Amino acid sequence: MAKAFFRLQKFLRRIQFLLFFLTAAYLMAGSLLLLQRTRLVLQQGSRGTPTNQALPVPEEMSRVGIIDPRALQNPPGPRLLVGLDALQEPALEQRHSPHWLMSRNSELRQLRRRWFHRFTSDQEPLQTAGFKAMKHTVEHKGTYMGCFTHDSRERTLKGAVFYDLRKMTVAHCQEACAERAYSYAGLAYGAECYCGNTLPAAAAKPEECNSECKGEKGAVCGGVNRLSVYGVEQLRAAARPRRNVIYRGCFRAPENLTDTFPASLIQPNLTVEMCSEFCSKKEFPLAVIRGQECYCGYPTRRFSLHEGTAGRHCSGTHNASSTAGGEYCLVYQTPVQDTRCTDRKFLTTKSKVFVALSSFPGAGNTWARHLIEHATGYYTGSYYFDGALYNKGFKGEKDHWRSRRTICVKTHESGKTEIEMFDSAILLIRNPYKSLMAEFNRKYAGHLGYATDRNWKSKEWPDFVNSYASWWASHVLEWLKYGKRLLVVHYEDLKQSLIPKLKEMVEFLNVTVTEDRLLCVENNRDGNFKRSGAKQKNFEPFTQEMKALINRYILTVDEALRGRNFSGLPREYVPR
């Protein structure tokens, strides 16, 4: 009996081991299958497989040539444009069906997303290299003043504000404040930098500043409602030669200078540098000189800087003594930031009207968001997520685009379903020649750089134009067709007449703002994403075939706008 029991026990142990082995083998096989399937899905997604939904073709597009999406890998030349003669060719008729148009739009949108994600992944090493270089040059040169309390609503350091939610360092904040002529730099939440000329009054315990800097391990960048404050006087002296004091022009002086400007100084032998330094310490963005008198302040309704006078009224020189006791004054922009419009927040209650800020890529959407946020005081959202924008202070970038906590939502989408999700939209349109170049620059050099000669001369540029030029037209046409309530804004008009156009946009968003706040936005009009660096002069990347393609789209969009009782495209869009 004992022997039989021992055999049974031995058999069960073998079965147990066998079951364990089979279970492990099953799990391993399943994991391999899952990995293989995931790889297959990713490969299919990277090819931009179109959906099978269909859209009617706008009437205007029937007169213009569109590119077959099947040719995106080998795009055709402009010779495949469909004109009156080409419409008679049977081989091209299928390329203008409703199914074809939706397929084309879908592929272009997926192509855009693929390029966008490739750019954001490629951009990181460039940004990191820049911060490493900065660390070696200015690391911790300021004097640590201590840990202080910080209230975001009633800031103690009332000067400029900077965000870098990924790569903030102590040195970066110190250098930024020093270059703008501030005496103190304060860091909070590990990623926010505040500048000012007055030391905060309420000190906190040293251990309460315990947030590690996002871009510098082991370094402290304040804490929750706490500021790590540094004195940057030494850095200010080193940064003085690099500061930009910008001449704004010669203006008629207001009737009562002392009532118009909050701070003033009378100084014999007054110089521009002396007045600018005085106003910078007082944290004012404008330095106004009349003879030996120096005044500091902001652009206001009394002194808006919109009506400059001929330079001869100021004797054609920037020498302040030449305007002594006169009715004209010289105006300079100090390095100090105008902070009257920099406070932003999310909507306290969900918006009842879902508003889109729609544009073709490269049409100035980021700049328009900067203007809207500073004018209204509310964050804008995004249909996508761009880490570079989020890290620079566009906090709505990370909020879900349908949360309705933002004043409007950026989108480049143009399908019927995507458009009808919104109750209304600001449709931002830019010259396609400029838009295509801006988007190509962003693709290869980020938000702030320029593509190289090698990029422009590569095969990618003509391929890019052939595929994206038709998207520029179809984007506008579909928003005109399916948009419920539209405000059409031309980028060029916004740039030339900023305050009137921005006022229209703000009223469309049902927000009331003061004139002084709009003047503050105008004073900070460029934002953090204006391209800098060596721009190619007299550079013409468009061939005659490209121009012929784009010009047809321009005429089509112009006709469509007029057909919807909107003003046509600006004159500078007219074919070259």
Task: Report what the structure shows.
Keywords: Repeat. Residues 141-233, 244-341 form the WSC domain. Belongs to the WSCD family. This is WSCD1 protein. By secondary structure, the protein is of the alpha+beta class. Among the domains are: 143-238; 246-310 and 327-333, no CATH class; 355-530 and 542-563, Rossmann fold. Helices cover 40% and strands 14% of the residues. The protein contains 17 helices and 17 strands. The strands form four sheets. A five-stranded antiparallel β-sheet has the order 1-7-3-4-2. The chain has a five-stranded antiparallel β-sheet with strand order 8-12-10-11-9. The longest helix has 45 residues, at 2-46. The radius of gyration is 30 Å and the shape is globular. Residues 36-102, 115-138 and 316-324 have low confidence and may be disordered.
